[in-house]
Amino acid sequence: MATASPPLLAVEDLQIRFHTLRGVVHALDGVSFEIARGESIGLVGETGCGKSITARAILRLVDPPGRITAGSIRFEGTELLTLDRRAMRTIRGQKISMIMQEPKVSLNPVMRIGRQVAETLLIHDRSLSHRQAEAKARDMLGSVSIPDPARMAQRYPHELSGGMAQRVMIAMMLVTRPRLLIADEPTSALDVTIQAQILDLMTDLIAEIGSSVLMISHDLAVVAETCDRVIVMYAGTVVESGTVDAVLDEPSHPYTRGLLNTLPDQVDPDRPLQSIPGNVPSLLAPPVGCRFAPRCPEAGPRCRRETPAAYDVGAGHVAACFLHADGGVA
Amino acid sequence: MTRPADDLLLEVRDLHVDYPLRGGLLQRRRGTIKALNGVSLSLRRGEIYGLVGESGCGKTTLGRALVGLAPQAGGEITFDGVRLPADGRRDRFARKIQLIFQDPYASLHPRKPVRELVGEGLLINGLASADEVDGRSLAMLERVGLNAEHLYRYAHEFSGGQRQRIALARALVLHPQLIVLDEPTSALDVSVQAQTLNLLKELRRELGLTYLFISHDLGVVRYMSQRMAVMYLGHIVEEGETETIFERPQHPYTRSLLASLPSIRHRKQRHKAALQGDPPTPIDPPPGCPFAGRCPKTQPICREQNPALAPAVGDPAGGGRDHRVACYFPDLPGEG
Ligand SMILES: Nc1ncnc2c1ncn2[C@@H]1O[C@H](COP(=O)(O)OP(=O)(O)OP(=O)(O)O)[C@@H](O)[C@H]1O
Ligand SMILES: Nc1ncnc2c1ncn2[C@@H]1O[C@H](COP(=O)(O)OP(=O)(O)OP(=O)(O)O)[C@@H](O)[C@H]1O
Ligand code: SF4
Ligand code: SF4
Ligand SMILES: [Mg+2]
Ligand SMILES: [Mg+2]
Fold this sequence. Notes:
The complex is a heterodimer. Chain A is built from eleven helices and twelve strands. By secondary structure, chain A is an alpha/beta fold. Chain A has two domains: about 10-95 and about 180-325, Rossmann fold (3-Layer(aba) Sandwich), CATH 3.40.50.300; about 95-175, P-loop containing nucleotide triphosphate hydrolases (Rossmann fold). The two termini of chain A are about 35 Å apart. In chain B, helix 4 (about 115-125) packs across helix 5 (about 130-145). The interface of A and B includes residues 197, 218, 224 and 269 of A. The structure holds adenosine-5'-triphosphate (2 copies), iron/sulfur cluster (SF4) (2 copies) and magnesium ion (MG) (2 copies). One adenosine-5'-triphosphate binds near residues 56, 58 and 60 of chain B.
């Protein structure tokens, strides 16, 4: 729900390029969106469309050969792209947290998990003794439904199942109580019954802490169930955004419509699935104009000439498509 | 559509596959992984049979056992009326049962051009003479949506969806009867997944194929299969017509699985995590029902003896004649 105060996060016209031997990869172009306080937003799209790199840009974790070449990212009014390293580290540690698809990669492989949670606690509360921190860490493991926390605290990351490791990551988040939680495919590596447990856990804790969430997923259903709003990306651009209900019930960009039509749970078994013709374009030489034009059934001459802006199609619902602009696609 | 019972293409009875669990410096045997612990199912000619279940429950092992690639510790497999030797020496049948893997990147030899990838099976099996091979390969490539220009290219030059088509052509030139599709679209993007699923359906119709379709994506299995089975920890816990399983599941695990599923159509209706705990490992499993450790309805008897997969009863809507459940206290429709 939109509030009158300035948004927690405002990304504007973000552009990211990768300079590779094969040429310049135009990974992101003109990406803009806002996240309000307490709001959860889903970022969806097919592989390579730029979801992870958008998340990493917010944390200023774009590594060479990648570079942020234009745009602005403001967090609580502060421009992050020009912030000095120290201030940025503080934001990363205390205000914005990230949970990734492979939690074991983010955990220290040679440190027992109880200790890892305790260390995070110590960073945030210098008044704690080590003993107190370890005891509190066990409580936190219990509060994210890790069975037998005293014994589990003694384990190393590789001794945990994927679901357990993801719980440990969530326990760490509970320690930092971030304003913004970025979750990059947090359940994509998990089985559905475990996914359901993790999503419930995240939803409850987020409600308790009052964090805003940027949830990245290639699974529209996960976003549909956990988010207020959704942003659909295609080939490094935002093509549509709005409330989950608006975007899923009245998709207004031809790509979103195509994506929804390809999902098997939308059709009866006797009808062939619809598919989007062609392939995702190479970002070394992305199509001029609308990046979806080569695959779009409704493309007109304007689509290959100009880049569509975000046009309003409803309350807080926008689509980057000339079908919704004055003058249309002609 | 009802078919006579003798129209079975594949019958698996009480199949067991064990792997030794080794550990320590000397790699001593420390236990047994019961990857398949008494699996029975049958596939009718021409059907698509779905197989779902969580990671590690034994889906791939079942697929591999059918082509003789998993150590069979017990039970029997009958294919097209002939019992397959349990020792994996299946030369006579190899061609007739083909396995397609999830990852088209790994399953195609990187240094062979498409022409060779598709054609070599024809030569090895003596199905075509040297001067017929290219023509036959090309015809099949065209059937799966590729063309002559692709013949001399290598697998790495293709997209994931195209590689899966090459793998299919490679299997189909051998005129198999049964294709085991192990997560065939899991590595593909949804827009490409749709093309591949459509192609698989068309091919089955045109070539009279039978599929064992393995997936963890329940939406895909619902769309593709006529009948399906749900596996848990090396056991089949429920089996039946796909619509029956989705609409009137009776096994507590199946019900939790379906309740856990996020959905676009029924968003925000997912039940609060239907199931607690992680799936157990199949290492030296205790006796009794495989689901007893996580089941909300466990009774003492559940831990003593494994419930047999038996015809489902008590469904007023008629559970479908193939509906079978392995549970002492199934959830009857209308309950809970
Ligand atoms: N190190 C790199 N060098 C060149 N290009 C890169 C590099 N890292 C990312 N890219 C490009 O940036 C684009 C965006 O990648 P990103 O990882 O954000 O995709 P994604 O939407 O998260 O995909 P996925 O769903 O597969 O995780 C891709 O097209 C990718 O090719
Ligand atoms: N070659 C092997 N040696 C030892 N154990 C094995 C071997 N192959 C499989 N297993 C074990 O057998 C069990 C079943 O594995 P399988 O690969 O059949 O599961 P699956 O249902 O296909 O899982 P997934 O959905 O992750 O693909 C697992 O516990 C696995 O670790
Ligand atoms: S702008 Fe044109 S090409 Fe792009 S999505 Fe809209 S109609 Fe299609
Ligand atoms: S047999 Fe018992 S433990 Fe197993 S599923 Fe049925 S009720 Fe649950
Ligand atoms: Mg990503
Ligand atoms: Mg498998």
